[in-house]
Amino acid sequence: MASDDDSFREFVNTRYTDLLRVAYHLTGSAHEAEDLVQSALVKAMGRWRRIDDPLAYLRRIMINHHTSLWHRYRAREVVTAFFPERPARDTTTAVDERQTVYRAMRALPARTRAVIVLRYLADLPEAEVAAALGCSVGTVKSRASRGLARLRDALAPLATERSVQ
Amino acid sequence: MTLDERVIKVLGDMADDLTPEPDPYDRVRARWRRRRRQRTAAASVGLVALVAAGAMTAVRVQGDNAPNLADESDSNWTHVQAWSERLYESPPRGGLAGDKMYLQALASAVAQQQPAGKYREVRVLFLDDIGPYRIALVALARTAPTPNFWTHASRWLVADRGATVDKLAADATRVGDALEPYVEMELSKGDAGAPVVQIALAAGDCDFESAPWPAVKDWQPEATGSYLARAPQDAKPEWWRVTCDGVMREEGPAPGWLAPEGITEAEYATALSGIRGVRDPVSARDEVMSANGHWGYEVTGLPKVIWQGRISGAGEDANGQMYDGTGTMAAAPAVGGGWRGELSIRYDAIDPVSNGVGSSVSFGTRTDPGDPSSVVVVRLHDTATLVVTPANANGVEVVRGDTVVAQVPAKDAAALLSIGVKPGDVVRARDAAGAVVGTVTVDDDPLPGVSASRWHLE
C-alpha cells in the first residue's frame, strides 16, 4: 500500500497543474477547478493500483462529473466571470481576447466544451477524446468543428480590429 | 497565425497563470477520509432509501469502465471477476461469429499489434455487420494479471461494413482496460443524421430482454439471447436487462448519452411554471437542463422545478458536509412509478474545508411533488430536514407515533426542521387558521427508476 500511496503522491505532485488547467477550462473558475480536480483525485485514490493510465482516467472522471453537474457551477460562473490576475505583458487587446473567448467557452454546451478542452488544450488525438467522452470519433469531429467555429466567430471582430490598428 | 490558431493560443494563455492551492496531496487525503466517514455514517443511518445525500449522486456513466472497487469487498470483486471470466470463456456472438477464419485472422492481427509479452491470448467475442459498420469486440488476456486488477482488457473494433481483417484490426479508438461482465457500446449518436448502433454483450448463458421507454413494462426476450444489437433503424429509447442463472444482473436504459440535448423554450416554460418559494429562473433553468441530462431515460418526462429558496440554519452534518445556501428542487416521474427528485444547494461562499461550491440531495416520492398542494420532505442529515409546503402554509409539524416531535413556522412554501425525519413520521402543513393544508408520511422506498448492476453479488 505504501508504494501505491507513494505513486499516487508523486502523480498528484507532478500532474496536478495539468489537471487543473483542464478543469479550469471546463468550469471557468480557478476555485471550481480545484474542487473538480480534488473530487476526481479522491475518486481515483481508492482504486489507484487498478488504473493503467491515470491522466486519461482522471480527465474522464472530471468530464463526466462536470457534464452531469455543471449547472451548479454555471450560476457561479456568471457571478465570478473573471480571470486570474494577468502579468504585465498583457495588452488591452490580449485581455479583450481572453474575455471574449472566455465568454464564448462558457456559452458552449458542456460536452462541446469538453471536446474543445481535450482536443485543443490537452492536445489529444480525436480517438483519445472519443474514448475519454465515450462517444464516436465522428461525434468528436463534429463537436470540435462546431465549438471551434463559435469561438472563432466570437474572436473574429477583435482580430479584425487588431489588423486595422 | 490563423484565427483558429489564435483561438487555441488564447485558450492556452488563459490557464497559464493558474497556481494550485497549497498541499494538493494532503487535501485529497483529507477529502478521501471525509468521504469514507460519510459513507459509513450513511450506511448506519438506515435511511439510505429515503434520501441519498452527498456532493454527487451515482450515475451510470458511459465510458467509465472502472467500477468503484474501492467500495467493494474482496468477495464482491471476486464475483465481478468470475463474471468477466465467464464472458471471456463464452463462444463468439454476432451474425458473423460463424466465420472461423475471419475470427482467427482478426485475433492474430490484434495480437500482433500488442507489446510483446503483455497478453497471452486474444479472443474475438463478437463480430457482426450492423448498419453501415463492421463491429467486433476482442478480449485480451493479460499474461501476468495482478490480483486487484482486471484479468482481461478489451477493444471494440469498428470499420465499414464488410471490412477486411486488416481494416478492422487497424481501428484503435476504443480501448478498454477491462472486460467487464456486461459490455455495451453505442456508435455515432450525437451527430445529426448519423446512424446509431447499440450493442451489449454478457456471458453466453445470459438472456437479454428489452422494454420500450417510457412505460418500461412490456419486457420481451431478445431473439439474440446473450447479446443485443440495434441497427440504426431499430435504435429507440428503451431499457435493457440481463438475467443470468435466474438472477437479474443488469437493468437500465440502452447505452448512449443519458438524454438528448436541447430543451425548447416551451418546455422550459412548462418546467418552471409551478415553482414554489422564491423564484430564480436562471438557476431553475440550469437545474432542469442538468437533471434532464443526469436522469435521462431513468425518468419518463422532463424535470419540473418544484421549489426554490434559502436554506438557513441546516448547518453541516456530522461529517462536515454543509447544507446552507440557495436551494433548487426539481423532480420528474420515474420509470417504474414514483417521482425522482434532487435538491441542489449552492453555497453562498466556497466551503473552506472541502473547497466545495455546493451539494445535493437525491430523494424519491410516491406522490407528485409538482402538485402545488403536496408536501415534499427531504431529510438533509440527522438534525435537519427541509419541508416544502403548499404556498398557503404557515407552519409544519411532525408526528411520530402519537407525539408531535417538531413544530416550526413555514415561510415562502418551506420550513426547516431541526430533526432528521424517520420512516413512518407524518409531516403536516397547516395554514394560519390551523387547518391542515397538506400531509405526507415519510417512507423508506428506494430511489425510483434507478439503473441496476448486480454483478458483484453472489
Name the descriptors.
heterodimer; A: 165 residues; mainly alpha; Arc Repressor Mutant, subunit A; 80% helix; B: 458 residues; alpha+beta; 5-stranded antiparallel beta sheet; 7 helices; 25 strands
Could you say which overall geometry of chain B the principal axes of the C-alpha atoms support? elongated
Q: List the domain count of chain B as a whole number.
A: 2
Please report the distance between the alpha carbons of the first and last residues of chain B. Answer: 61 Å
What class would the helix/strand composition of chain B place it in? alpha+beta
Using the alpha-carbon principal axes, give the shape of chain A: globular
**Largest binding interface between chains:** A-B, 81 and 72 residues
The largest sheet of chain B is:
6 strands, mixed
- The structure class of chain A reads mainly alpha
Percentage of residues assigned to helices of chain B? 10-25%
Unreliable segments of chain A (pLDDT under 50, ≥5 consecutive)? 69-91
The helix fraction of chain A, in percent, is over 70%
**Number of domain modules of chain A:** 2
Assembly level: heterodimer
Specify the number of helices of chain A: 7
Q: With helices defined by DSSP (H or I, 4 residues minimum), what is the helix count of chain B?
A: 7
Estimate the mean pLDDT confidence of chain B.
Answer: 83
Beta-strand level of the residues of chain A, as a percent range? Answer: under 5%
Number of beta-strand segments of chain B: 25
Name the beta content range of chain B: 25-35%
